[in-house]
Design a protein that fits this description.
mainly alpha; 14 helices; 2% strand
Length: 358
C-alpha cells in the first residue's frame, strides 16, 4: 500500500525513491511486524484470558505439561495479524505470488482457528478431525499449486541442492508434489509446536532463510551469477518473509519458556503452509528438507513411531513427536528448545551455503 502511495511521488520528493527497493520495504515490513507484535501482545493475551481461551492439555502427554493447562492459546491470530498487515503495507500489491502465499496462510489460519475454537469451547484436544483437516489443506494447496504454474517458466522442475545441473522435471506430477510440500510443511510445523517457543524459533530462522532465497531468485543478475532459476517477481516475497520472521520474533517474546501464550493451530498451520508455499514458488522444494530440518525430524519421528507400533507392536521413541522423547529422557524443557533452535540455525546456514557449494 505504501509502495503504491508514496513511490509515485518520488519524481517530486526524491526521498520516496527508496520505496522502489525490496530491501528497504523488507526492513520496513520487519520493523512494522515486530512493533505490532510487541505492542499488541499484552493486550491480546489479556483479551484471551478474559475469554477463557485456555490451552487444553492432552491426557496422554508428559505429566510436566499438565501445569500448562489454562495458558491462553490461539496466539497465532496475533502473528497472522502482524504478518498480513505489515505485508500489505509494504509489498507491491500487484505481485501475484504474494497474494497466493497470503491465500494459503489465511485459509490455513482460518482452519486452525476453527480447530482451536473446537478444542477450547468443547474442552476436547482432538479439535477438527484429521480427515477433515487434510481435505481442506489439500484443496487449498491444490488451488495454490495450480496458480503457481503461471508464476515461473520452470514450474515443473526440481533443483537438487549441492548439484549444479541435477534437475528433475516432474511434468504433470509437479502439482500433486507441490501440494504435498505445502500440506507436509503445514503439518510438520503443527507437530513441532509442543513446547514453549519450540516451533516459532525454527519458523523465524526458516523465514529469514527464505527472505534471502526469494531475493536472489528474483534478482536476475544475482540469479545468473549463482546459476539458479531466475523467477521474475519472486523478490517481492522477501517482504512477506521478513514480516513473518519479525512477527514470529515479537511473538517469541511472550511464547518463550514459561509461555504466556501459545500459538495454537491457527498459527502453526498458517505459518507452515506459508513456508511450504515459499519453498514451491522460489523453487526450493527439496532445499526445504534442509532449511526446515527440525520440522522434518519432528514429522518423521511421528511416522516412524506409528509405523513401528503397527508393524512390530513396539515404540521406537519414548513418546512422539521427538521433543517429548528427549523430555522423558530427562532433558529440561528449555534445554530441548534451545538445542532444537541451534540445530535450526545450523541447518539454515547449511541451506544458504548450497547457493555456492555446487
Amino acid at each position: 500500500m505504501l509502495y503504491h502511495l508514496l513511490f509515485p511521488l518520488s519524481d517530486q520528493i526524491s526521498v520516496f525513491n527508496v520505496f522502489r527497493y525490496i530491501t528497504f520495504r523488507s526492513l520496513g515490513a520487519a520493523i512494522t511486524a515486530l512493533v505490532l507484535s510487541l505492542l499488541l501482545g499484552p493486550i491480546f493475551i489479556q483479551w484471551l484470558k478474559r475469554l477463557q481461551m485456555g490451552q487444553v492439555v492432552r491426557a496422554e502427554g508428559p505429566e510436566s505439561h499438565l501445569k500448562k493447562k489454562g495458558t491462553p492459546t490461539m496466539g497465532g491470530v496475533l502473528i497472522l495479524f502482524a504478518l498480513l498487515l505489515s505485508t500489505l503495507l509494504w509489498v507491491d500489491l500487484t505481485n501475484k505470488g504474494v497474494w497466493i502465499v497470503i491465500f494459503v496462510a489465511t485459509t490455513y489460519g482460518i482452519l486452525g482457528f476453527v480447530d482451536d475454537l473446537k478444542k477450547v469451547v468443547y474442552k476436547n484436544s482432538k479439535g477438527v478431525s484429521a480427515k477433515q483437516k487434510l481435505l481442506v489443506q489439500f484443496i487449498v494447496a491444490g488451488v495454490a499449486a495450480w496458480l503457481f504454474q503461471d508464476f515461473t517458466a520452470v514450474n515443473s522442475e526440481l533443483r537438487v541442492p549441492f548439484f549444479k545441473n541435477f534437475v528433475i522435471d516432474l511434468g504433470w506430477m509437479y502439482i500433486p508434489f507441490s501440494m504435498l510440500v505445502i500440506v507436509g510443511a503445514s503439518n510438520a510445523v503443527n507437530l513441532t509446536d509442543g513446547l514453549d517457543g519450540l516451533a516459532i524459533g525454527p519458523v523465524i530462522t526458516t523465514a529469514g532463510t527464505f527472505l534471502l532465497l526469494a531475493y536472489v531468485a528474483g534478482h536476475s543478475k544475482i540469479a545468473q551469477y549463482l546459476e539458479i532459476p531466475y523467477i521474475a517477481g519472486a523478490g517481492e516475497l522477501s517482504v512477506f518473509a521478513a514480516a513473518m520472521a519479525a512477527a514470529g520474533l515479537g511473538f517469541l517474546w511472550f511464547n518463550t519458556h514459561p509461555a504466556q501464550v501459545f500459538m495454537g493451530d491457527v498459527g502453526s498451520l498458517a505459518l507452515g503452509g506459508a513456508i511450504g508455499s515459499l519453498a514451491v514458488i522460489t523453487k526450493n522444494e527439496i532445499l526445504l528438507l534442509i532449511v526446515g530440518g527440525v520440522f522434518v525430524m519432528e514429522a518423521l519421528s511421528v511416522m516412524i513411531q506409528v509405523a513401528s507400533f503397527k508393524l512390530r507392536g513396539k515404540r521406537v521413541f519414548k513418546m512422539a513427536p521427538i521433543h517429548h522423547h528427549f523430555e522423558l529422557k530427562g532433558w529440561a524443557e528449555p534445554k530441548v528448545i534451545v538445542r532444537f533452535w541451534i540445530i535450526s540455525i545450523l541447518l539454515a546456514i547449511l541451506a544458504l551455503s548450497t547457493l555456492k557449494l555446487r
